[in-house]
Amino acid sequence: MAERPLTHRRLSRVRARAGTLYVLTPWWGKVLAVFAVSRIVSTAVLLSFAARQPANAWTGPSPGYFDFAKLWDGHWYFIIAVSGYPSELPLTDDGHVAENAWAFMPAYPSLVRALMTLTGAPFAGVAVVVSVLFAAAAALLLYRLMNLVLPSSTALFSVVLFCFSPLSPLYQVAYAESMHTFLLTAALALLLQRRYWMLLPVLALASLTRPSGLAFALTMVLHVAYRWWTRREDPFPARERVAASVAAVFSGLTGLAWLLIAWAITGSLTAYTDTELAWRAPYIGYTHLIPFTPWVQGANWWLGEPTGAILLAIAVAAFAALMFTPWVRRLGVDLRLWVASYVLYLLAVFFPQSSTPRLLLPTFPLFGAIAQPTAPVYRVAVVLLFILGQIGWVHIAWWADGVDWTPP
Length: 408
What we know:
By secondary structure, the protein is mostly helical. It is built from 20 helices and no strands. This is Mannosyltransferase family protein. Pathway: Glycolipid biosynthesis; glycosylphosphatidylinositol-anchor biosynthesis.
C-alpha cells in the first residue's frame, strides 16, 4: 500500500517536468519535434510498402527507400534533371502530343540538378533530401502563418495535422510538392502581412515549381477588391494599392510564363497545354482545353450521366458552404480567398483522377479549421485517422501493384 502514493508522486513529478520542458521549448523546437516524429511514421509506412513492392517499370522487387521514393512523376523529374526538356514535342502514332517533360515545372529539378553537380550524389538521394528540408521549412512557416490568425496552441496543432496528413509521405519523395508548399506558405504569410513587394520573387519561383500563378493572381485581385471595399474601416493607402495591384498582375504573368517558355523552345503555342491534355487522353480521348469542362467530363466518366454532374454540383455547393462555417471564417479573409481561388482554378483546368488529392495539397490552410476543437480525444482521433489515411493513400496511389491506372 505504501508504494502507491510514492508511485503517484513520481508520476506527478514526471508530468510536471514534461510540462516545464514543453513550456520552455521554443515554438520552432516544438514544430521540428512534431516534424521529426511525423517523418518517422511516414518513413515506416513507405518502407513497409517498399518491402512488398513487386518488380515494376522503375525498380526491381523490394527496392531500397530512395529508389522507391522516385516512382511515378519522380522519374520525370529525374529525366529533367539529367537531360532537360525536349525541343521537339514527341508525338503519338496518330499525331497527337504524347506525355513528356513539359508537364513539369523546372524549379525543383533544376535545384536538384545543381546540388547533384555540386555534391556528386545521385538524383534520388538529393531529391529526397531537398524535399524533406523544404517540408521542414514549410512546417516552420506554417506555424507562423497560422499564428497570425489563430492562437499558438491551435497553430501548433495545425502543423501536427499538416505533418501527419494522409498525403504527408509526399514530403519525402522526389516530388516538387514540398518546395511549392514552402513557397506558397511564404507567399500567404507575406500577403497577410501586406508585404506586397516581397511577394514578387516568391511568386515567380512558386509559379515555376507547381502551377499556381493564375490562382494566386485571382487571390490578389479579390484581395485588392476586398481592401478597397473595406477601406473606411481598414485604410488602403495609394502605395499599398499600387503594390498589391502590381503583385496581382505579376502573379498572372508568372502563371503564364511556363506556357510562353514552352512555346519559345518548341515553337508550339500550345506545347504545355497539349502536354497536360495527353495525361487525360486515356479517359476521354484527345480534346481541347475548355475551361470548367474537365470536371464535368471527369464526373460523368467516373460516375455516368447525369449522376456525375449532379454529384459534382452538390460537392461544389458543399465546398462553398464550408467556406462560410465558423471554423473556416476564423482563418481570416485572405486565407479563405486563396483556398477558394485555388479550388476555382482546379475546377477550371484540371481533370479529376487519382492525382486529385495531391493537387488539393495547396488548400492546407484548411488544417487550421480542423485544428480548432481542443478536446484531447478529438485531436488524438484525428491524428490516428490521418496516419491510417497515409497507409491508405500509399496503398492506393503510390506503390505499383500491377493494377494502377495513373500516377498519384
